[in-house]
Amino acid sequence: MTPRIIGSPIIAAFMFLAACGGTGNQYGAASYPLTINNTLSWCTVTATVGGVQLTDFSSDSATIQVAAGATVNLTAVPVNAGFGPAIWTGTTTANDAQATYVMTATANQNVTADCPIVYILTLANAASAACTVSATPAGGAAENLGATPLIFDAGVVVTLSATPFSDSYTFEYWTGTDVSGNNPASPATVTMNADNSVTVVCPAVTTYPLTINNQGASCDIVASVGGTVKTTLDSANVSKVIDLAPGVTVDFVASPNADRLRKNA
User: Fold this and answer.
1) Alpha-carbon gap, residue 32 to 106, rounded angstroms
2) Distance of alpha carbon 164 from alpha carbon 172, whole angstroms
3) For residue 16, what are the CA distances in angstroms to 10, 21, 30?
4) N or C: less crowded end of the chain, CB within 10 Å?
5) Who contacts 187 (Cβ-Cβ below 8 Å, separation ≥6)?
6) Helix, strand counts (H, E) of the chain
7) In whole angstroms, what is the distance from residue 257 CA to residue 47 CA?
8) In the chain, where are the structural domains located?
9) What pTM did the predictor assign?
10) Tens digits of residue pLDDT in 144-174
11) What's 9-114's CATH class?
């Protein structure tokens, strides 16, 4: 039996085309929806395909239709200095910390841009500028550079360490907002729940001169503090002066000078 076509051939052809059209899927897709989420609207997000900007928004989310196989450049910029670089998560991302994420439209996709809150930590030396200051975790280190701002995510606990340049200086204390260990102790910690400024105080150590006399240069003398040799005297030295901090104990070892013994033999 010969089938019948209802309506004209032109109408039938139109119906066939309409049935085969529509948005994309894995079977010869024309386009795919791409949903872009913007965590708490902390980023300004731009989506560009082939140099053409499809969307630019700072709201919570937007959905655009992208041609199958098209390359999409997604750019997220923090809305102000209080937010850090974007971290992308989603269908084809793996916590990519980058301003621009490049993807290809091969399926329905959902991605999220997160520009986290960040705070600035300013480290400074007091007037003497006599300590090396470091901050952990990552964010950099300040080494006698004055005020060096470091950026940390909100809530991060930063450990601050101070090391005097030499025995002529000593760590004394920290000053600043929200810094624990504001006493003669290093390291200290600061929790980044706001911008913070911390100063380390490392004053010069008060010292007293100690004069060591080697009568007639007849002895070999070693002067030590805490196992560290501070100075030595031999047949070429009649006297030496060293500076020592208050309360320091000095150990002396003296033995007959070999040159003097040979002369007296």
Assistant:
1) 7
2) 10
3) 10, 9, 16
4) N
5) 159, 160, 161, 162, 181
6) 2, 23
7) 84
8) 9-114, 118-201, 208-257
9) 0.57
10) 445 567 788 888 888 888 888 877 788 888 8
11) mainly beta
